[in-house]
Amino acid sequence: MSAQNSRAKILINAFEKQIEVAHKALEKNFYKTAEGKIASLERSLASIKKKDPSFNTSRLEKKLDDLKERCGDNKTETLTSRKESRDKFDKKIEGQKIMGEFMSAQIITQELADKVIAADKSFSSYSTDVSQIIKSTEVVDRNLARFKVNFSEGSNDETMENQYNDFKSRKLFWQTSATILPEESSVISASQKYNDFAKTIGSLDDIRAKSAAFNTRRIANKRMPSAAIKDVKIENLFKKAFDNESADTNWQRTSLKINLTNRDWVISKNNLTGAILGRKRYAAIAFKDIKTGKCKLISDFTIYQQYNGSGYNEHAQGTSMVSTEILCENINK
Hints:
Blueprint: H1 9-27, H2 31-51, H3 58-104, H4 110-118, H5 126-136, H6 140-152, H7 157-180, H8 185-201, H9 204-219, H10 232-248, E1 253-260, E2 266-269, E3 276-289, E4 295-306, E5 317-319, E6 323-325
Antiparallel strand pairs: 1-3, 2-3, 3-4, 4-5, 4-6
């Protein structure tokens, strides 16, 4: 018996249409929509059998079984496809994050460099990172010139080590950039310049030795500024102000010699009224840094005494400026 001659003709036609809708949904990977049709198709099949028990439903049952099987296969394929898409998306996001760290890091580590080389670079903003790297090649020569000066002139060990670590980080930055951008001649050139410069400076110990030699030559002729006048009372004011400042700043240092560098006080007045505010005096102070054992010189230590209306305060406030190293044996020369 054909479907058109069956008493369940309307139900059979509806079943066929729903099967067709389900398959179209599968073609679009809407497996949940297709799966949702299965229960209603099973009910529809039961209604057909009830409406016309004599109708052979084997063909319809076969279509429903095929749909069920296809839904299962499609679901697996879709979930796999979605996982692959998600994995690709996650790799892009991770690659973008790694490149962001690389572009902004103060110190480039080997671990970070390895991540950058291995990272997925198909994210949309990668071209912007590349442009920034290429733009940075413009300052390579200037940075290397600065390193040349820093590594040849005297500096303390901590500062020198910081500068050396900065250089190694920049060198690794350009090595990594050259690895991921082998077609960019300016980047390759920048990396080569850092490699060549590294050969000229040697190790951190080599740099420290050269720096120490330079520093020794530089300070060999340094002397205390001559005293403009001798006044033990004022020199004691400076010593007390110097010691107070040492205590306030927790700097362990001992004054060795004080030379007054001006002959008289400099009076400070209000610019508008002319009223006296206080007075200043200047001196050169040589001292020993207890922590390092080195002798140092402050060429322009300043003390200030505030005016109280009838005279100047007994105590003076002291202020240090920049100190430089001086050979201890040169202090009294």
